[in-house]
Amino acid sequence: MTNGLVLAILGAALAALLAGIGSAKGVGLVGEAAAGVVSVDPSKFSKVLILQLLPGTQGLYGLLTAILMLSRIGVIGGNAAELTAAQGWSFFIAALPIAVVGLISAIFQGKTAAAGVGITAKKPEHNGKGIIMAAMVETYAILALLVSILLIYNINI
Hints:
81% of the residues lie in helices and 0% in strands. By secondary structure, it is mostly helical.
């Protein structure tokens, strides 16, 4: 295994790990707030569940990035490419947008969605406003995913 391949695999792992950690933290934050609401009024479960699901997407974006990278370098498929150090660093750097933005945006989206749970607790008819506010944070995770994908597919192997 070449050093370049190791760097590329580390980048893929970083994308999945950091975005996954952010999603776990974000989903957990919303779950704590949602549990309180549901313990008082179980009929609000589906409304708060939607809010809890939102910060989980960054983990999926990190996983998607990792799978695309591993596929591109041939690790998935059993024919790993011989990558130079420069190529390995390129793949590693390509993973950074979704790794870093996924981590941070999932946590902030969790905080925003937890605030949306508060809206739902007091005025359930305004639940959609909480969802929209939390979804706005998602925009930056999607942009980071797009940048990572564009970088991955523009590295010459």
